[in-house]
Structure formats: C-alpha cells, structure tokens
Amino acid sequence: MSDYAVELINVTKSFPTDRGGELFAVDGVSLSIRHGEFFSLLGPSGCGKTTSLRLIAGFEKPNDGEVWIGGKLQGNLPAFQRPVNTVFQNYALFPHMSVYENVAFGLEMHRVAKPEIQRSVSQALEMVQLPGLERRRPRQLSGGQQQRVALARALVNRPKVLLLDEPLGALDLKLRKAMQLELKALQERVGITFIYVTHDQEEALTMSDRIAVMDHGRVLQVGAPEEIYERPVGQFVAGFIGETNFLPGRVVEARADEVEVELLSGERVRAVTSQGLSRGQEVTLAVRPERMLLGSAPSEPGWNLLAVEVEDVVYTGATTNYLTRASGGLSIMVRRPNEDAGGERPVDRGVKVAVRWRPATGSVFVDDPAHQDGT
Q1: Per-residue pLDDT of the chain (375 residues; tens, 9 = 90+)
Q2: Is 136 exposed, middle or buried (0-12, 13-18, 19+ CB in 10 A)?
Q3: CA–CA dist 196, 40 (Å, integer)
C-alpha cells in the first residue's frame, strides 16, 4: 500500500478564455494526503481548490502532472471507476426517491444483492444518525438531515477517499457549526480519508488534521491548523487565516534571530525571525489582534510599544475589539476577551493609550507585490 491516500504530482489544469488565451486554474500543484486524514483545501473563490478536487474525482483531466489514489496512477480513468465519492454543496439528492432509495442507489447500480443493500443502508444511516427516516422524501427533511443523507449515500460504498465540495455552505451558521463537529467525529469513526474544500477559515481550522492554503492555482502552505495560524509563510496566508494587523516598515537593525523595524510612522519595534533579513529591506510585520494588549507595562521589559488613539470599540460577545490608530495613520485592532481582561480596564473611544506586544508573537514578511492587494 502507498504511504498516501492521494497524491498530486505537479498537476496543471488550464481552461481557454474568451480572448483565446489560457486561464490556469491549477498551476503546478503537488500534494501528498495521508490515509485516514481530514485534509482541507482552503482559499478564496477562484483559487483552484474545487478544480483540484475535480481532478482527483476524475471530473476533469489535467493538462500535465499525475493523480495517484491508493498508490495507483489514475491516468484517464473515468470518475465512476475511481475509488472515491463526492458530496456536493447542493446535496444532489433525488427528490422523487425516499431516503432509503437515495442511499441505496449506488449499490443498486453495482447490482449488489438486496440483503446486502439493506444491511449497508441501515449501517450508513446509523453512521450519520438518521435511523428511522428511511421512508421520508428529501423535502420532508431539514437542511442538516439532507446533508446527512448525502453523506450516507457517499459512504455506503465504502470509498477509499471521500471528497467534499463546500458541503455545509447552504446551512445556517448555527447548524453549520454543529455539523462541523459531527462531520469530524464521523470521519474519525469511519477512518476514511476526507478531502474537504472550503473558503471558510474557521471551518478549516476546526475540522482539519492538515490544511493546504491555495491562491491563484498554487499551494502556498501546507500544515496543521496551529502551524498555519501561528506560523504563516507569507502575507497572504497570514491575512486570509483569521485577522491580522499588518505594519509595513524597513529593517534598521538585523541580528541572527531578531530584527528591529522602523515603521512608516518612524517608531521602532522588534520582531523574532529566522529569515536572515538585512538592513534597509522593506518588510511587513504581522501581529494577530489577540496577541496585542492595551496599555503600557513598564514593569515588564522587552515589549513593543506603540502610541495609539482608540477610534472605536466593538462588543462581539466573547470579545471586545478596539479599533485604534497610530501616528502616520496606521490602523491597529486589539482584541480583548470579555471574561478575563487580564485586570485591564475597559478603554473608551478617544482615549490615547499604548498598544503593546511581545516581539516573538509577530511574523515578519518580505514584501510580496503579488499579494499586496490580498489577491
């Protein structure tokens, strides 16, 4: 058996444009996805994540590169012969069929014996927590129940890999969050490799063992959720995964593992880095809002300090967001948990205060013109 459930090796897929050119939806993508892994393809619309999924499924053929599933080169193998099943956002249930008939459909097409179909459908419905609803039609089910039926139909054939194309996108927020936990628990129970496409950062962080962040048809970073969030490799990843303050500046002092950066406002701050930066280099410092605190702490040396004025205070329930502005027009957001504000007092609009953070909590990126606009 191969070490990987799915491998993409330098895969490229382009589509013709109206002007006679080519649009590269997937541009030299290589991925190795492990057996039994919950792996997410994450990125904005048009980044290539759904096309990558369709290449694995066999709905699209690559211009170049190879697709391997379970150690076997798929080549031109059609979708129905690949050991995968796909769950779509719109469920794709047959409205005229009962729940039982929808789930049994694939088995019947493969001419499985009736007793085996009954046993397999019953197990699949138990798996997705829908026993007793076999006779209902899709229109008699809630959105969450319909999604479970779609999952049962995909799992009943016991595919080696389950492909999920934004399957929770049509659900309301509360149900979506509940289904995220259910889906992850289901994947752990059945032990099948899940490859999940989403543009929702929180969803990917919640459910995934590993995440591939994509943009412009390319994979920018692959890693565990904590690694992607805490140690992004570039400005696009840092900005796309969660919220981040970006502080542009220039390196004025560079040591082995730390740099001093002069911000556009003229103030100097420090950051820990292993990139080997040099003096005069244009960089951007990224710091998460929850890593910043309001107010100076003279008894604690080593903090970065910036003078700011609070422009707005936004209460969000679990947290309060302080929207501040530093000299030079630099906008900075600070997020404070409401349950435990660390002994700090609430700060009102118009108050001038300091923002502080530790040098090790930020990331330093060499400016990348290709991603300065967040594309």
Answers
A1: 578 999 999 999 999 888 878 899 999 999 999 999 999 999 999 999 999 999 999 999 999 999 999 999 999 899 989 999 998 877 788 999 999 999 999 888 888 899 999 999 998 888 888 888 899 999 999 888 888 898 899 888 889 999 999 888 877 888 888 888 888 988 998 899 999 999 999 999 999 999 999 999 999 999 999 999 999 999 999 999 989 999 999 999 988 788 999 998 888 999 988 778 889 999 999 999 999 998 866 556 789 999 999 999 999 888 999 999 998 888 999 999 987 555 566 788 988 999 999 999 989 998 654 444 333
A2: middle
A3: 5
| In contact, 15 and 27? CB cutoff 8 Å | no
Record the pTM. 0.88
Domains of the chain: 4-236 (3.40.50.300), 237-371 (2.40.50.140)
b vs e for 286-325, b when ≥16 Cβ sit within 10 Å of the residue's Cβ?
A: bbbbbbbbbeeeeeeeebbebebebeebeeeeebbbbbbe
